[in-house]
Amino acid sequence: MSLNFLLGTGKVNSVLKEFVRNASKKTGGSTSNTNCKVKPKRRGWKVQDGHSVQAGHILATQRTTRFHPGLNVGFGRNGTLFAMEAGKVVVTCEKFDPNWEHTWVQRMYAGREQQVIMKKYYNVIPQPQHQRFKLVDEV
């Protein structure tokens, strides 16, 4: 039978239903480890000891206070250390003398009252200014 003949008789719907074929397999890909794709935060020190930085450069990112701000270093709300002036980065390990009457210090450093506690501090030593000044106008 031709298709033109079937169009006139109204049998097209029954013929077209015979040609429809359903998929035998589902599409969608792999389902293993679909929820484990977490981007790392890449926290830690960004600038090493002895490098030069400009004002505003991020020195270290941290979740807990591992590094402490020193000279010309700012402390962000999320614990980020940043340079407040241009200069050379110096990382020092200094003795930390906490206020032992404070309840938070008692809780964090319990059992370490007789020990020497050392902390790492980020410092930025400013670049020396040049001494090449030109006298523009006399007073």
Automatic annotation (TrEMBL):
Taxonomic source organism: Spodoptera frugiperda (Fall armyworm)
InterPro entries: Ribosomal_bL27 (IPR001684)
Ribonucleoprotein as UniProt keyword: yes
Keyword Ribosomal protein: yes
Keywords: Mitochondrion, Ribonucleoprotein, Ribosomal protein, Transit peptide
Location relative to the cell: Mitochondrion
Annotated Gene Ontology cellular component terms: mitochondrial inner membrane; mitochondrial large ribosomal subunit
Family that this chain belongs to: Belongs to the bacterial ribosomal protein bL27 family.
Top-rank taxon, per record: Eukaryota
Biological process according to GO: translation
Pfam family, any one: Ribosomal_L27
Broad class of where this protein is predominantly found: mitochondrion
Molecular functions (GO terms): structural constituent of ribosome
Protein name as it appears in the record: Large ribosomal subunit protein bL27m
